């Protein structure tokens, strides 16, 4: 049986008949699941669970986790008040992803973070974020491109010898897309930066030691079909997840 990879998604409101309250659901672009599938995994979209026991039980069941892109993180999660430029936040998504990520790490299971997912990973272990790059970073690189999703808008430099570099076929510099206005500010303890934009903004991070936690600020799920090198991120997650996968249900493990 293929390793089961959980994928988190964005919040959206399902419109019902006129006058009736809307229903809340989960939204996820197909490209995430297709990347997991192509790399040899079985994707599972995660609902918005809030019960700690349910989250822990889900972590038992999963072999790996992909934290996908989406809304801004609530700055209260890293000890700050909201500032001008902050976008929409979804507190219940923050709660779910932070709890699920920590549970996966406690169980020694691999996690890949993409865009928001990198920010969640940083905050979960004590880091902080720029709430809005245009106000707090003031660089000249455009991180909110208007071009199509698979357009390479700027370069990133990769740390030699890092997991990320190995996953990207040993490249030392690579083009990427860019659709974010938040980013890592203070890096969480236990992590190292492994990719930077031309102005030094952190674009990739990974854990030190034995845990497999890798994250990028760009969107490889939109790139791998045009640029196969980016499938390496999904393949790396699946490879490590497969090593801990028994093919049995949690109760049988």
Describe the structure.
With about 250 residues, this protein is of the alpha/beta class. It has one domain (about 5-250): 3-Layer(aba) Sandwich (Rossmann fold), CATH 3.40.50.880. It is about 25% helix and about 20% strand. The chain contains seven helices and 13 strands. It has helices at about 30-40, 50-60, 90-105, 115-125, 135, 165, 230-245; strands spanning about 5, 10-15, 25, 40-45, 65, 110-115, 130, 155-160, 175, 185, 190-195, 200-205, 215. Strand 5, helix 3 and strand 6 (about 110-115) form a beta-alpha-beta unit. Residues about 250-253 have low confidence and may be disordered.
Compact description:
The protein has 253 residues and is an alpha/beta fold.
CATH superfamily: Class I glutamine amidotransferase (GATase) domain
DSSP strand content: 15-25%
Number of strands: 13
Dominant shape: globular
Radius of gyration: 18 Å
Q: State the low-pLDDT regions, or none.
A: 249-253
CATH topology label: Rossmann fold
Helix content: 25-40%
Number of spatially distinct domains: 1
Major sheet summary line: 9 strands, mixed
Topology of helices and strands:
Blueprint: E1 4-7, E2 10-14, E3 23-27, H1 30-38, E4 42-45, H2 52-61, E5 64-67, H3 91-106, E6 111-114, H4 116-124, E7 129-130, H5 133-136, E8 154-158, H6 163-167, E9 173-176, E10 183-184, E11 191-196, E12 202-207, E13 213-216, H7 231-243
Parallel strand pairs: 1-4, 1-5, 5-6, 6-13
Antiparallel strand pairs: 2-3, 7-10, 8-9, 8-11, 11-12, 12-13
Helix pairs in contact: 2-3, 3-4
């Amino acid at each position: 049986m293929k390793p089961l990879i959980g994928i988190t998604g964005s919040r959206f409101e399902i419109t019902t008949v006129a006058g009736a309250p809307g229903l809340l659901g989960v939204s996820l672009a197909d490209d995430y699941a297709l990347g997991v599938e192509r790399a040899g995994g079985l994707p599972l979209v995660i609902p918005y669970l809030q019960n700690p026991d349910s989250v822990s039980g889900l972590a038992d069941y999963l072999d790996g986790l992909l934290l996908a892109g989406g809304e801004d993180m609530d700055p209260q999660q890293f000890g700050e008040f909201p500032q001008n430029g902050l976008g929409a936040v979804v507190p219940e998504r923050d709660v779910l992803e932070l709890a699920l990520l920590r549970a996966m790490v406690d169980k020694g299971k691999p996690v890949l973070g993409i865009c928001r997912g990198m920010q969640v990973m940083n905050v979960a272990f004590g880091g902080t974020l720029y709430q809005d790059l245009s106000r707090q970073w003031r660089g000249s690189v455009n991180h909110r491109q208007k071009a199509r999703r698979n357009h390479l808008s700027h370069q990133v430099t990769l740390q030699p010898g890092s997991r990320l570099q190995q996953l990207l076929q040993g490249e030392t510099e690579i083009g990427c897309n860019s659709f974010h206005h938040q980013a890592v500010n203070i890096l969480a303890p236990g992590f190292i930066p492994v990719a930077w934009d031309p102005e030094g903004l952190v674009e990739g991070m990974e854990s030190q030691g034995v845990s497999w936690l890798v994250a990028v600020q760009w969107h490889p799920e939109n790139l791998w079909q045009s640029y196969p090198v980016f499938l390496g991120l999904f393949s790396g997650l699946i490879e490590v997840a497969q090593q801990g996968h028994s093919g049995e249900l949690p109760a049988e493990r």
